Amino acid sequence: MRRLLILLPLLLAWTADWYLTARSHQQLLARSLGGLLGPEIQMGLESRPFVPGPGMARLNGDCQVDSARLLGADGVAYWKFGPADFYDVQVPVIESGQLLGRLELHFRPVTPPLTLAAAWLMWLAMLLVQRSAARVRSRSLVLEVDAQRRIRRLSGNSQLLARASGTLIGQSLDELMNGPLAGGRSLSQLSGSSNRSVVVVRDSEDLRKVKSRVRRLEAKYRVLCDSAHDLIVLLEPEGNLIFINRSLQERLAGANPTQLQQMFRPEQFEEVKEHLHNALLEGKSAQFETQLNGQIPVCGSFSKLEPEPDTPLSVLGIFRDLSAQRAAEAGLRQAQKMEAVGRLAGGVAHDLNNFLCIFSGLTALMREELEHPEAIQGYLGELDQAVESATELTRQLLHFTGKRGQEQQCFEVDTAVSEMASMACHMLGRKITLETSLNSRNRVTAERTQIDQVVLNLLVNARDAMPEGGRVRLTTRNRDPWTELTVRDEGTGMDAETAAHIFEPYFTTKEPGKGTGLGLSTVYAIVHSLGGKISVESQLGAGTTFTVLLPCA
User: Rounded to whole angstroms, what are the CA distances from 532 to 19, 529, 548?
Assistant: First the structure.
């Protein structure tokens, strides 16, 4: 009991940490949504009545948000969805330094992790077992008897055989067990010799209660497994399935497999089998990712269950469905891309305006020279060049804003980086000089927009680090079997603590409303999805260098 009391504060601290982490995540998500939806809300407020945009409509399908409400700066409710009467989180919506209103969100209840719930259930089970054991001890009697089966010493509840312990010493155990006070008692001889042995006398009714309690606990654990969102399987070392929980049965679409290999495709089962063997040899396998039935992405691990005496060896597998996580990651990447498109549009708009001025001027000159065809031909040539330049600029912008899901292709890194760098120059501004040194000539296999997004986000990060201007160096070179892409700035730099968190989603050092914290996390996700690596070197006042390694095709 004392050990259980020591574990209680640890479980309470664990629970509090989980709850605070979940609340912190909700706060971060709410602030991010407030920043992302600012331009959309501003446009909706300018049209009366208020018209929600596509981003706000997508909130209705968010797996985390249950209800939402938008209040104007005057406190008037402009938009609402969901049945909630109260809201967990409130964030101000600020755009261009102006308070537009307040976005209030109510999140769906967060399910605690399986390990935490299992820890509490195990703690309660241990508490029940200890209390049951105490009652069992109070309803049992341990005796030491001699060769003639006479009682020499006793410990426990003597009332199982008589009312006074003094009357038992020297009495014959066989006579007492056959006497009128011994009804409903059971006797077990645990160990002994010819002159001395230990005998346990137990209340038979108490034994039935203990067995019944054990069966109830087993039923609770089964309910726990069936209620868990994680996919749980218990199997023999040979791969024969002993138990699969309800969540796993639902993912298998009603199938009832009897072997582990029936849950995976042949090429995937080879990797799964290797991790199963590692669990049998080392006790636990490393966490790995695979696909259930070749369709559902999952991650999990195997653990060997140490057998008790007369208990067969078995293996426990716990997996987590990554479908929702993959969808959320895709949504975050698309949201970050739209933010990058907005940044590009601001820089490109200036150059497009210059082209329009050229078109207008040349048209006016041609009207004045209608009587001189040779002069009009020269103007038409200049007009053609301007139209071609504007078309190329627009083509690059449309190429970048294309939807994800394109087929991967093999292309030269230098070509993609060069085209993206020429378009990014419009966004960096006049204070920043972009120097390129492209010496790779290697080819990679990827979606073209992925490389564009990596380069653009790293250049945007370099620009934001140099508010007073400076120089950015963009280089590529060969490092077999890798292609190295480097972006180096002369900005403010970072300390080691900040650099350790820059690839985390929503982490940003910018002021509220000036950054979502998704840029570098998107770069990290893209690079690792391509099998590459990314590292950062930075010092305060000495600039920052990002190094990306991509595998050659």
Answer: 35, 7, 7
Between 341 and 22, where is the model more confident? 22
Distance CA 53, CA 93 (A): 15
Q: Are 481 and 552 in contact (CB under 8 A)?
A: yes
The average pLDDT across 402-414 equals: 71
Longest dimension (CA), the chain: 140
3-state class (DSSP) for residue 311: coil
From its phi and psi, is residue 524 left (phi > 0), alpha (psi between -120 and 50) or beta?
alpha
CA dihedral for 146, 148, 149, 151, sign (positive or negative): negative
Cis peptide bond N-terminal to 39, omega within 30 = no
pTM of the entire structure? 0.37
pLDDT at 482: 93
Q: Is 83 helix (H, G, I), strand (E, B) or coil?
A: coil
Is the link from the previous residue into 481 a cis peptide, with omega within 30 of 0?
Answer: yes
- 105: nearest Cα among 89, 122, 116, 82: 89
Residue from 432, 437, 549, 438 nearest 489 by CA: 432
Name the 3-class secondary structure at 105: strand
Q: Which amino acid is at 487?
A: V
Average pLDDT (154-167) is 59
Cα-based distances in Å from 387 to 64, 383, 392, 394: 47, 6, 9, 10
**Which pLDDT belongs to residue 544?**
93
**Rounded-to-integer distance, Cα 4 and Cα 24, Å:** 30
pLDDT digits (tens, 9 = 90+) for 505-546: 666 766 554 555 567 877 888 888 888 999 999 988 889 999
**Cα dihedral sign for 209, 211, 213, 219?**
negative
Nearest to 69 by CA among 48, 91, 47: 91
Burial 378-400 (b: 16+ CB within 10 A, else e): ebeeebeebeeebeebeebbeeb
Sequence-distant (≥ 6) Cβ neighbours of residue 189 within 8 angstroms: 197, 198, 199, 200
The encoded tokens of residue 300 equal: 């999990």
Does the structure show a pLDDT above 90 at 488? yes
